[in-house]
Design brief:
The chain is an alpha/beta fold and 326 residues long. It contains 10 helices and 14 strands. Helix 1 links the parallel strand 1 and strand 2. The relative contact order is 0.14. Bound molecules: uridine-5'-diphosphate-4-deoxy-4-fluoro-alpha-D-galactose (UFG).
């Protein structure tokens, strides 16, 4: 298969490319390098361009297509930033994706796997979130992804574009061979921040955002899912579109929740050291608990996470952070 990976220089996109190449697919990466890293593109050519520039997309599809599958990761993805800069989020995530969809339709491409998020659900009313839960996002990031999910329904009806939206819970961990990993500037995610606080000592103290959430230890609970399990779901979703004609959405998580303090304790076991932290004010827009029910992905896609132990997941990230190559 020839697969176009939009956003293939980023954290999830680069792991995706490595997995595709490992099963002998041909990979073409398109990325504007705003948050991605050229050094993370190792399994196919990197075409630098922007989904906001329709001409870039037209040249991409005419010079490098046709593609058997398009996987679209290009997005702004920080909840807090989206509250401060909603215009950036709607422009990049909604207008950028509209350009991708139009280019696909104009060039006869009909299979898309799209990065969505648990943030489409807002504050959940149940402990385990399945696909039947109402999508009521509480920030512009989640709203922008919900808008694309809705667009994909309409585009299937009108133009026959087949798609799978994959709603990630908390993506984490790194390539077990530590060739690539997670690197954001600035880093806002929990596991890299814990590990960096160990590597950087007093220079970067670990902060825990909030201690009064209605959870057993007062800190937020999340469902941490390994990056390679997420990548695998895209491969299965691509296969699914070969024999299913529709616009689908699946939640992807382990179904186990860990509090911030539990993740810190697990990281202490992995690194063999205690981790100092201080309690800070809660972060705007953080729901107390977000845990997936991913049964539908198992039934429909045959997807089952391989990494279901939090310490093993953290260990892959730790191996990467100790020797970051970009
Ligand atoms: N946290 C800390 N200290 C840190 C970083 C995070 O205490 O230094 C806490 C957060 O407050 C939160 C938890 O750790 O309670 C996880 O935070 P992350 O930033 O790692 O992840 P989020 O749950 O905020 O966000 C992730 C994705 C988003 C997605 C969201 C779904 O990164 O793209 O899940 O709610 F929208």
């Amino acid at each position: 298969m020839k697969v176009l990976v939009l956003g293939g220089a980023g954290y999830i996109g680069s792991h995706m490319c490595k997995m595709l190449a490992s099963q002998n697919d041909t990979v073409i990466v398109f990325d504007n390098l705003s948050t991605g890293h050229a050094e993370a593109v190792k399994w196919g050519p990197l075409i630098v361009g922007d989904v906001l520039n329709k001409n870039d997309l037209v040249s991409l599809f005419s010079e490098h297509g046709p593609f058997d599958l398009v996987i679209h990761f290009c997005a702004k993805s920080l909840v807090g930033e989206s509250v401060q800069h909603p215009a950036t989020y709607y422009r990049n995530n909604v207008m950028g994706t509209l350009n991708v969809l139009e280019t696909m339709i104009d060039t006869g491409h009909d299979k898309l796997v799209f990065s969505s998020t648990a943030a489409v659900f807002g504050v959940p009313k149940v402990n385990l979130i399945d696909e039947s839960q109402p999508r009521l996002p509480i920030n512009p990031y989640g709203q922008s992804k919900k808008m694309v999910e809705d667009m994909l329904q309409d585009f299937h009806k009108a133009y026959g574009l087949k798609s799978v939206c994959l709603r990630y819970f908390n993506a984490c961990g790194a390539d077990p061979e530590a060739e690539i990993g997670e690197r954001h500037e600035p880093e806002t995610h929990l596991i890299p921040n814990i590990l960096k606080s160990i590597l950087m000592g007093a220079e970067q103290q670990m902060k825990v955002f909030g201690k009064d959430y209605p959870t057993m230890d007062g800190t937020c609970i999340r469902d941490y899912i390994h990056i390679n399990d997420l990548a695998k779901a895209h491969i299965l979703a691509g296969d699914y579109l070969s024999n299913h004609d529709g616009a689908y959405a699946f939640n992807l998580g382990n179904g186990n929740g860990f509090s911030v303090l539990e993740v810190i304790a697990a990281a202490e076991q992995v690194v063999g050291n205690t981790i100092a932290y201080k309690i800070e004010e809660p972060r705007a827009g953080d729901p107390a608990v977000l845990v997936a029910n991913a049964n539908l992905a198992e039934i429909e896609l045959g997807w089952k996470p391989h990494y279901n132990d939090i310490q093993t997941i953290i260990a892959t990230a730790w191996q990467w952070h100790q020797n970051e190559t970009f």
